[in-house]
Amino acid sequence: MAFSLYALLGNEAPSFSNESLAVDLKNYFRQEEGFSIEFEQLPFAHTKTLVLHWNMWLVRVCYEEGENVVADSIEIQKLLGATATPALSTISKRIRIVFGDDERREHTNQIIYIIDFLKEIHDVKIFDPQQNNLVNSV
Q1: Cα separation of 126 and 135, whole Å?
Q2: pLDDT tens, 23-74?
Q3: Share of the chain above pLDDT 90, in %
Q4: What is d(CA 113, CA 51) in angstroms, rounded to the nearest whole number?
Q5: CB contact at 8 A, 40 and 51
């Protein structure tokens, strides 16, 4: 089953774009066997999405900002209630990660590595919309 994560970027987080993410991720996974990265234009999308491949398995990565992200951040703040910082509802930038199906759990390490990559970002909150909770409390 596919699942997603949102890396919510606070005011002190560095600036990102899909292009800068491509450079960072290519460097981060440079020694991973079977790894490749490319841009993909999805139907109805305004910008290209990054696609990370480990042989046939893939992960889509996209930097997003704006009013839609703020609206989602407000909903996330409501879902988390008292466990979330008040500033969460004002976040307008995020990195959205969509993981491909991995029913046989062959890519668990890659999932962990991507989460570790996200955790290294200064002023980030990683939200799991499937579980409605934060992955980290950095």
Answers
A1: 5
A2: 999 999 999 989 999 999 878 777 889 999 998 899 999 999 999 999 999 9
A3: 74
A4: 15
A5: yes
